[in-house]
Structures are given as C-alpha cells and as structure tokens.
Design goal:
The chain has 90 residues and is mainly β. The chain contains one helix and six strands.
Length: 90
C-alpha cells in the first residue's frame, strides 16, 4: 500500500527528562535551541548530534498542532527520521 503524503513528511520524536518521557509521537518539524544557535529538523535531515541551551523547543505534530517546551539544556540525536531529545527539565 502506498504511503500518504503525511506519512512521507513525518518523523518519530521522543523528548525525555530524567523523571519521565514528556512527548512521544509522529511530527512534521522540531525547532531546537542549539548551543550555537537555534535550528530546525525536518524529514530526511542529515544525521546530527548536538547540545542544546536554555530556550524553547517547538514541535509541530502531523495534524499541525504545535507544542512548546521550555528547556534548560540537553542533547539531541537525529538519525533515520528518529529524533531523541534528552533534556534536564521541561
């Protein structure tokens, strides 16, 4: 069965703090407060590991709904359209 347009644009995201997982799901876009400047990840982004600084992490879900999380630093890994964000607090 062919993939729909939405399925072709989606990535899997997990946002995890030391206490709990605060987000898990399919997303279209993630905006991150990188330690050397803000950046965004879309589907098929090159693999990356980066540190995060204090700021706002923005998530756009497949339905267009947006979430914002205040973070105090952390680490992000993106590989093969799977994004894992480890943050101190959110």
């Amino acid at each position: 069965m062919p993939l729909t347009k939405n399925e072709l644009e989606l990535m899997f995201l997990e946002i995890i703090t030391p206490e709990k997982k605060i987000f898990e799901g399919e997303v279209k876009q993630v905006g991150l407060p990188g330690s050397k400047g803000a950046f965004a990840i879309l589907k098929d982004h090159a693999p990356i590991i980066s540190t995060l600084s204090k700021g706002v992490l923005k998530v756009v879900e497949e339905n267009g709904y947006e979430h914002s999380f205040e973070v105090n630093g952390g680490v992000i890994e993106n590989k093969a359209n799977k994004i894992i964000v480890l943050v101190e607090t959110a």
